[in-house]
Amino acid sequence: MSTSPAYTPQAPLQGSARTWGTIALSAATFMNVLDSSIANVSLPAIAGDLGVSPNQGTWVITSFGVANAIALPLTGWLSQRFGQVRLFVTSVLLFVLTSWMCGLAPNMNTLIAARTLQGFVAGPMMPLAQSLLLSSYPPAMAGMAMALWAMTTLVAPVMGPLLGGWITDNAHWGWIFYINIPVGLLAGFITWTIFHKRETATHKLPIDTVGLALLVVAVGCLQIMLDRGKELDWFHSSEIMTLTIVSAIAFAFFIAWELTDAHPVVDLKLLKVRNFWTGTVAMSVAYSLFMGNIVLLPLWLQQYMGYTSTLAGMMMAPVGLFAIILSPIVGKNVARFDPRLLTSFAFVVFSLVLFMRSHFNTGADFDTIMVPTIVQGVAVAFFFIPLTTITLGGLPPEKIPSASGLSSFARMVGGSFGTSIAITVWQDRTAMHHAQLAELVNRGSSASNSALAGFNASGMSAEQALSQINRMVDQQAAMLAVNDVFYASALIFITLIPLVWLARPKRMGAAAAADAAAGAH
């Protein structure tokens, strides 16, 4: 798998051409990353408008993530077949088109289909933006170029929840997708104007169509199974059983095929390298926990704590503040420290943040909920760069693109799976806690009788009083369930620390470290 294909060295750009080229590439990257987070706080509004549950609304996120990950293996082949500049501009323009389709979607099925297409066409944008940016700067300025690129990927997750929340509360939710249209058109036009004479050479290369098809079937069926399992009662459903069996068979054939094919779409032999497999597994699991929790928190706040989309966005945005401040410092000094130590510190902070959240209650105010979100930014800064250094460190240069692509694929698929699993566990635990709490509401309970008497005294009928108590039980059950997810996630982060220490990290060269620092995001 190659996400940073080799290109013919070109003379660096100069003056305003380099400035405008950097702005255009950064704008496209910003648009891409923004779309992975802007919908998080808008899910309840989207789901309500399209007539589905907020939990079903998470498909808007998971469909984009899985399709984006599946497109990564094709980037290297497509760029060598059609040229990096043509592929990048085409990807940007198709992203604009699919964003328009997302905003116009009349129902959830159409929106999921459009988001899947959007994620797929977005696949080449990030690695090609990085590659074109590096070709625009002299080697001595490569570190600065990658720092600019990385900062773009850190600012977007901060702006996403704020922008998504404000748009959802003040306009139709479709505008969270429509805003991509002017940005994408302008970025595509500027990129083509500046870079079209710097097109890379094209070649006709074989492509592993069998491996790619097996990968799509295996990952696609597994994601659909995770998304639909709850509403279909899991393995009591023939559809879920079929999806599981098909996914398992496809994965088995995929592994056998990739290990024997001359031009595999995914180089599974990289998993024999200790540093690579430990880093990739740790990254995938940690990112799945991270994504699951940042999707779950705004859902809980809006459904059960009375938060508007704007307030939920304000609550989520600060996660990027410390990341923006600390990431350049970590990237500059990562070679001076053991990356296992830095990664362990990140996991401890993640665990602390989730442990703090696991003690929330329905009386928690804005500031109480905000504090862990701010602290989480420290963990983000110390998470991506050191762990990527572990994963790619010691690999020969010719293996870096393939290894980076496979690691990114695993991370993105892990994020989609983590989102589905977190929401499913939350639903199941909410139902369990609701049943347990409902058992305490009976004629023999003095607390229940006192509450009913109070509601009756305020003018409520018996039915209204019971309905009010049921709403309170719903709120408490959801709170207890979200605490369970946060607590379990905190424990899993701690268990990942020994896995990281199985690695034997090796120092990376300056250029590779800069590339890894940017590619991690």
What's this model, at a glance?
This protein is mainly alpha-helical and about 525 residues long. Helix content is about 75%, strand content about 0%. The longest helix is centred in the last third of the chain and has 39 residues, at about 400-440.
Low-confidence stretches: 2-8, 509-521
Find the CATH topology of the largest domain.
Growth Hormone, Chain: A
Number of domains: 3
User: Which bin fits the share of residues in helices?
Assistant: over 70%
Helical segment tally? Answer: 21
The CATH homologous superfamily name of the largest domain equals: MFS general substrate transporter like domains
> What general form does the structure show?
globular
Roughly what fraction of the amino acids lie in strands?
under 5%
Global structural class: mainly alpha
SSE order, as H and E? Answer: HHHHHHHHHHHHHHHHHHHHH
Q: What is the CATH class of the largest domain?
A: Mainly Alpha
Describe the structure.
The protein has 21 helices and no strands. It has 521 residues and is mainly alpha-helical. It has three domains: 1-207, MFS general substrate transporter like domains (Growth Hormone, Chain: A); 210-264, no CATH class; 270-521, MFS general substrate transporter like domains (Growth Hormone, Chain: A, Up-down Bundle). α7 runs antiparallel to α13, α7 (142-170) packs antiparallel against α14 and α18 packs antiparallel against α20 (462-500). It is globular and about 80 Å long. Mean pLDDT is 83; it is low at 2-8 and 509-521.
